[in-house]
Amino acid sequence: MPDPGERPLPRVDESSDALFYRQPRFVTHIDDAAIRAVTGLYREVLPPGGRVLDLMSSWVSHLPPEVEYARVVGLGMNEAELARNERLNAYVVHDLNADPRLPFADAEFDACTICVSIDYLTRPVSVLREVARVLTPGGPLVVTFSNRCFPTKAVLPWHRLDDAGHVSLVSGWLKEAGFVAVEGLDRSPAPGRSDPLFAVVGHAG
Length: 205
Fold this sequence. Notes:
The chain is an alpha/beta fold. Helices cover 26% and strands 20% of the residues. The chain has helices at 17-20, 32-45, 79-84, 124-134, 156-159, 163-176; strands spanning 51-55, 71-76, 90-93, 111-115, 140-145, 179-186, 198-204.
């Protein structure tokens, strides 16, 4: 369950996220090499044939194209972007900063992904506790991020940290939310020549 005592993390722009994300952005937020690194990690961690929740989803899927999954559900902020994502079997438009509760049943998914978006959650632990609830026991959560963001919408603690600090921060959020076997990874494909790519992987307890 979400933590009613978790205070929202501050941001430069505290205006409505629904307004900010009203216009679709059909762009990628990391370069091709970093995207391939995300896909490679998913190939290693996500269970083939499983039910996957793509949290904070958009118009592009980074799932391995050759791997079949029983069901892929996206949750994001812009319906036009979600409708363009051909890998999704279904999608939900939902603002996690307005309501961190996930509109899914307990143990509905076998795995969850959050790609280059964790830094926008104002109540990350509450959201991640909900992720743990909707995952089957032991189900993996793969959180990936780089050094890019919409700076006015990223939470202020994110701006105060370097890459290693981001890995530590996200790892702490997962542990506080009840995830186990939490591991931070540097999957940067070509340091100095492409976008860096970092990940934190944990498993529902």
